[in-house]
Input
Amino acid sequence: MNSIRKITEYIVYVGASDRRLALFENVYPIERGVSYNSYVVLDEQTVLLDTADHSVSREFLANVESALSGRPLDWLIVNHMEPDHCAVIAEIVLRYPGVRIVGNAKTMQMMKQFYTFDVDSHAHIVKDGDTLSTGRHAFAFVFAPMVHWPEVMVTFDTTEGVLFSADAFGTFGALSGNLWADELDFEGEWLDDARRYYINIVGKYGVQVMNTLSKAASLPIRMVLPLHGPLWRENIGWFISKYQTWASYVPEEKGLLIVYSSIYGNTADAMAVLAGACAEKGIRNIHMHDASKTDVSVLVSECFRYSTIVFASPTYNAEIFPKMEMLLLELKAHAFQNRDAAIVENGTWAISSGRKMSEMLGSMKDIRIIAPTLTIKSSLKEDQMPLVEEMAEALAKSVNG
Ligand SMILES: Cc1cc2nc3c(=O)[nH]c(=O)nc-3n(C[C@H](O)[C@H](O)[C@H](O)COP(=O)(O)O)c2cc1C
Ligand SMILES: [Fe+2]
Ligand SMILES: [Fe+2]
Output
């Protein structure tokens, strides 16, 4: 059996989804699963664009076999050498010994690191802008370094106007029959995972993503076929504009995010008071998370989403509470920048979490601290309400202008 699907007259979807994996890259929770997309082009010569993850290799290999229906595989284009897409290359070479593998010099170097088969005897090395004709189709290779790894390239099928975009425009979430974004409630059900995928996987490389977007802007793109998640043939401009927002580190929405850590609930209680004060000041888009409960990948994604963020943490063994410290480290690692922020600290004997949070935020670019740090000594007191009001006022100004 196979689960192949027709994309165009010549292009066949041969990818597969995994709903069993708990953590993508062994770190990002994927409750909705993930798909490993792969494509066969049936031209005068046959082409496979990327392979798949080990976990779906059986379905993937059956799909490739079925798509080729007895024909040999002439070309394997490797846009990305990360194992979630390259894991089945050696098996493909065993099954189709005549296959020529298209990649750049870095691709081949990585392939030799991951594999022991004779890469050189299969290698067809391309440079940025090179093209390959397979009969009716001409494929152009556009290098996209660091749009996730240094060897990444995207492949443009100039004949059909199809961009094989590698990890770019990918999304967490398994596919359930409907392959196209326009067949799904993408904005309602997928956008959060698309944002979380982008921010956590490539969020650090905004500059490189913008470079790739500007290279792609000159291409007459009809379809975008990424390596993960739904495929695009409608509203492509809308999704590209999301990428432009994320890659340029501008907030996607005016809104307030309150992220707190709390061991015994006092900091949490104080944040409920602050959130209420913010609502009284007219803020409508308020979101709260306990950093011990919400996964850090969601928190990082939400921080990229909103304009204004409150970070609140107790002092814990003279440090920031670990879950909050982890969030701040992750934000720094993802080049988080250009937001309004406020800090709330708590402690019972020697309070230092505020200063430490402020140092970490200060090491990021353009994080504007818009209110004095609110210091809670074990629990918030009535006489501190003016300070809470002052912070709420500053937050409302940031969100509502
Ligand atoms: C393991 C542990 C270590 C702590 N270390 C410090 C500390 O170094 N300095 C301090 O002022 N308070 C420290 N505290 C106290 C908490 O920061 C303080 O009780 C705070 O009010 C807790 O807020 P919460 O109710 O939101 O958890 C520590 C508490 C715990 C449980
Ligand atoms: Fe990747
Ligand atoms: Fe990937």
